[in-house]
Design a protein that fits this description.
about 0% strand, mainly alpha, single chain, 2 domains, Rhopdopsin 7-helix transmembrane proteins, about 75% helix, globular, about 400 residues
């Protein structure tokens, strides 16, 4: 058997296994949701459950599974694809165990091992952040930044043990099933373990690894890190905005519905999508355009929102609170402000974050102004070569002019 044929067979087997795992996740998630759908709403309302958020994350985990399958099928040596698939499997088992436990406890009490299914659901979901942190440590090529980071990678194993000890072995009632005591409770001192702190430590180490990798990288690897940094930035912005809304509006006003959970799930889906684009190098260099447009339109949206609220309050003070003219006047004012505000914000973003692009635009604008008044052909050629060097920075510039016939 030739090497090429052996490689193709290995890719086929890896791809087949990866897509089987996708099917396992879908089957487990659908089965868990189907079981939970038969549980009376009154029972779920009495439970301290977070399954509504997990339900919102099912499509996100499907994205993790699909992108993990594509990566594992094309680059089986990269562990990130398999980590994404493992993350989906864990969450699928969590959904199945959670749904089965509720169904067995409230609909059909004769089913066996209900308390152990509830126990399994209590610690399966919290281990997922460790897998995400490990994927970030190995991003994008499956290798650590340097040998020094092996300590951090190996620390994921004891951190997993800490999380399982906190959520799965601590004595007392189960967090999502308060009516059940832990059937495999360990010693009393396990109740003092803080699994959330362990998760925070490993995620912080993964973010530090990405920062170090970005500072040391160049070329393709730097563009890959930009993709994942962009997704992480979106998640961080959402958490900051939602946290600020909770503080300003109050817990009930900001988090009364599951809408925030579904929005966060949509934002979080950018993480596997960005990782897949970076690793597979599909549209790799589009990240600069994506970041630029995000900065421009996010700043524009915030500016128009603040301006609109200010105009409404001012118009209501002048015209009267009962008049709808305040809203109409504010809307017209913001519509008139849209184009000049976008141009100004775009200029500020280019000047601050894309200085080379901004300087190149100024150089071309100045060259166009000189070209309208310049009659000397040699001077035009010299200016053209200077513009090409300043804007595109080529290794060599030459100008060839065809003689007029």
């Amino acid at each position: 058997m030739t090497f090429e044929r052996a490689r193709r067979l290995a890719l086929q087997r890896s791809g087949r296994l990866a897509w089987i795992l996708v099917g396992v996740y879908v089957a487990a998630s659908v089965a868990g949701a189907a079981l939970l759908a038969q549980v009376p709403d009154a029972v779920l309302e009495r439970q301290n459950t977070s399954f509504s958020l997990s339900l919102a994350f099912m499509p996100v985990l499907l994205v993790f599974a699909l992108i993990g399958a594509v990566i594992a099928g094309r680059i089986p040596g990269n562990p990130i694809g398999w980590l994404f698939l493992a993350l989906a499997q864990i969450q699928g088992l969590y959904a199945l165990a959670f749904g089965y436990a509720h169904y067995a406890l409230s609909v059909d009490p004769g089913l066996p091992a209900a308390e152990y299914a509830a126990w399994s659901s209590s610690w399966l979901s919290p281990v997922s952040p460790v897998l995400i942190a490990l994927a970030l440590l190995l991003f994008p090529d499956g290798r650590l930044v340097s040998a020094r980071w092996r300590v951090v990678a190996w620390a994921c194993a004891p951190l997993l043990a800490v999380i399982v000890g906190d959520y799965g072995l601590a004595p007392g009632p189960l967090e999502e099933f308060p009516s059940l005591d832990n059937p495999v409770a360990g010693p009393a001192w396990l109740a003092n373990i803080d699994g959330n702190a362990a998760v925070f430590v490993v995620l912080l180490a993964a973010v530090a690894s990405l920062i170090v990798r970005f500072r040391r990288s160049h070329g393709i690897e730097r563009q890959q890190v930009k993709w994942i940094a962009y997704a992480a930035g979106l998640i961080a912005v959402f958490l900051i905005v939602s946290g600020t809304a909770t503080v300003v509006l109050g817990e009930g006003e900001a988090t009364d519905s599951t809408a925030a959970g579904w929005v966060f799930a949509g934002v979080f889906s950018s993480l596997p999508i960005a990782a897949g684009l970076a690793i597979l190098r599909h549209g790799l260099y589009d990240i600069d355009v994506v970041i630029r447009r995000t900065l421009i339109y996010a700043a524009l949206t915030a500016t128009l929102a603040v301006g609109y609220l200010g105009c409404v309050l001012l118009a209501q003070l002048v015209i009267g609170a009962e008049s709808g003219l305040a809203v109409a006047a504010s809307t017209l004012a913001m519509a008139a402000l849209f184009r000049p505000a976008r141009s100004r914000i775009q200029e500020l973003v280019d000047r601050r974050f894309y200085r080379r692009r901004y300087d190149a635009a100024l150089t071309l604008e100045a060259f166009g102004a000189r070209l309208r008044d310049e009659l000397d052909l040699e001077a035009v050629g010299a200016d053209l070569r200077a513009v090409a060097r300043d804007t595109m920075q080529p290794a060599h510039v030459s100008l060839w002019l065809r003689e007029a016939s």
